[in-house]
Design brief:
LprI-like_N; 86% helix; single chain
Length: 138
């Protein structure tokens, strides 16, 4: 029985990785194409800003989709969770800014931008995974 459970969980995690790629690939590809065409740090920073906005929209899409059709009890708990996450994100971004401002060179602004983007990207994917975690059909 344990063996069947482990095999089932491994299959589900493989499906989750593939599904992550389905929603992430278009946004990640757009960012990569933008960076490939950027001629300077300012243009690269603009790429990260646009990608961050796109991922923030995706996060909101995933959040609304997760809430859709759920119980009021779940919705309330999820709203509390999201408010806490937003506070965490803001505080973490402030700490990140402080950290990278200590460094010499313009590249660190891009490193900070990518790090911030990844926080939002990861949360959008987490919400997507939660929403789809009970889909046993694949």
């Amino acid at each position: 029985m344990k063996k069947l459970l482990v095999i089932s969980l491994l299959a589900l995690s493989g499906q989750a990785i593939a599904a992550d790629a389905d929603i992430a690939k278009p946004l990640d590809d757009t960012l990569q194409a933008c960076k490939n065409n950027a001629n300077n740090t300012l243009e690269s920073a603009d790429c990260y800003q646009k990608a961050t906005q796109a991922w923030d929209k995706m996060l909101n899409v995933q959040y609304q989709a997760l809430l859709s059709g759920q119980s009021e009890a779940f919705k309330q708990k999820m709203k509390i969770s999201q408010r806490s996450w937003i506070k965490y994100k803001e505080d973490y971004f402030a700490a990140m800014e402080s950290f990278y401002q200590q460094q010499q060179g313009t590249i660190w602004g891009l490193v900070a931008a990518e790090s911030k983007l990844n926080v939002i990207r990861d949360k959008a994917l987490d919400l997507y995974r939660l929403r789809n975690s009970t889909n046993m059909e694949g």
